Amino acid sequence: MKEKIKNIFNSTSMTWRNGSYSVGLIVLVIAIAVIINMIAGQLPENIRNIDISDNRIYEISDTSREILKDLDQEVTFTVYAEKSSTDDMIKTFLDKYTALSDKITVEWVDPVLHPSELTENDVSEDTILISCEDTEKSTTVAFSDILVTDEYSYYTTGSSSATEFDGEGQFTSAVNYVTSDSQKKIYYTTGHGEATFSSSVTDLLEKNNMTQEELNLLMTGEIPEDCDLLFMYSPATDITEDEQTLLKDYIAGGGKVYITLSSESTEDTPNLDALLSAYGMTPADGYIADMSRNYQGNYYYIFPEISAYDEMAEGLASNMVLLINARGMTITDPEADTITVSSFMDTSDQGYAVTEESQTEGTYSLGAVATQTLSAADTSEEEETDSSEETDASEDTEDSEEELEEGRLTVLAADSLINSQVTDSFTTLENLDLFMNTISANFDDVENVAIEAKSLEVTYNTMQHAGVISLLVIFGIPVVILVFGFVRWWKRRKA
Question: Under a CB-based contact definition with an 8 Å cutoff, are residues 294 and 302 in contact?
């Protein structure tokens, strides 16, 4: 009887000790978790907030990080909204973005408590005023520009929801605008059946502080002095000889011209072809096919080889660009020694120029740039000066060392690079990134800061063609854990 009582006591004592140990361990774990959360709560937003969103909407690109890192002027973000009712996505991204620079100050103004602030600053509710005191420049970003709503769905379904998040694109563009003195003007030609820019392209140009205005060369007979870049987008008909001469003279004087060739036009364009040939870019006949670099066996859907460098390669990670029904060019000798031409986008050596009558094999350029250099003295021949005509050897040396100006002609052999049907269908490609780089490369004081909006559409993960490893991870490991747990429980129960 004594032995039985002793065994019961020992068993109770051991159970108590094990229970006390378990309770103590649980308390310790809870205490550690509380301490870690308290410490984490004091960390900056950009450190403690990990982006696990479906499309990484809070991720900030290297372009924006570099701009914020180099920011040397004080910038103020004044948010005219009730903070508690502001969308969490906007608040989270605002905190993450502004935490990357100590030059940025964020102020919240409740429009309900301070309605006069809206009138004084000429802003509306749910708007962020971004300003720089040094430059005395400011701009606004509405919440509706950050959380972009599909208005079309409202008219079709009776309801609408945000489809894109454009926080980074809007903020970086605004910061670049208020801290920069540079603003470029693009004139796009009309009168030749040109195509129009998609909304995606227009938005990116605006984000880079580039304004756009149409220009009919046949009517004006001249290119405006405030033109920073003349754009001819996919002309369906030929230019005139007068226009050809005008464009050549413009480039020879230091002007910048950008031409994209039409993928659909079947008309002959001898004057336009002569212009391109003069700059070492001779158009090939027909459409370009590539037996090696194509999309799923469709030879006219080409993944070109990208050889861009410097500013034209900025931000390109995969160099994956898709062109459809592209025209092609062969690089030849330009008509003048002052002209240099180089290709930045080519087919493989298994490219073909295909017409109804022939198939000509070779490597074809799908995008090229020609530069025409001219001395600074050449550009000011017509300017009158009152300076002395005295010259000496030292002055001649200084003149020879003056920085050379250059005219520039950029040609894309495929307008599909920025066609919305391509860019909207293949969102992971870098078509628009490359395009914007080729635009900004025309200017010494412009960097491509145009960042595309991120989609908010939910991507559902489905398992397709599950292999051995996938089956092991999904089913094998959980089964092993369950079996191990059951065996341990059974042994303890038997004991």
Answer: yes
Cα angle 69, 70, 71 (rounded to 5 degrees) comes to 95
Do residues 90 and 107 lie in contact, with contact meaning Cβ atoms separated by under 8 Å?
no
Percent over 90 (pLDDT), the chain: 58
Tokens coding 194? 């040109």
For the stretch 302-359, pLDDT in tens is: 999 999 877 788 878 888 999 999 999 999 999 999 999 999 999 999 999 999 999 9
CATH class of 54-163: alpha beta
CATH number for the domain whose boundaries are 185-378+402-452: 3.40.50
Place of tokens 């051995």: 468
Alpha carbon distance 247, 244 (integer Å):
5
Which secondary-structure segment (H or E) carries 284?
none
Q: 193: which strand partners?
A: none
Q: What is the mean pLDDT of the chain?
A: 82
- How many CA within 13 A on the CB side of residue 117? 18
- Distance of alpha carbon 494 from alpha carbon 129, whole angstroms: 72
CB 132 within 8 A of CB 75: yes
Task: Give 135: exposed, middle or buried? Use CB within 10 Å, 0-12, 13-18, 19+.
Answer: middle
CA nearest 288: which of 341, 334, 247, 324? 324
The three-state DSSP-derived secondary structure of 294-309 is EECCEEEEECCEECCC
Q: Please report, for the chain, the start and end positions of each structural domain, with discontinuous segments joined by +.
A: 1-42, 54-163, 185-378+402-452
| 285: phi then psi, degrees, rounded to nearest 5 | -80, 145
| Strand ranges of the sheet holding 294-295, from the earlier edge strand across to the other edge | 294-295, 298-302, 323-324
Tell me the two tokens of residue 143.
Answer: 């919440």
Instruction: Identify the DSSP state of 366.
Output: E
Looking at residue 50, what is its pLDDT?
53
The partner residues of 34 in beta bridges, in order of sequence, read none
Phi, psi angles (nearest 5°) of residue 200:
-65, -45
The pLDDT tens digits of the residues spanning 415-425 come to 999 999 898 88
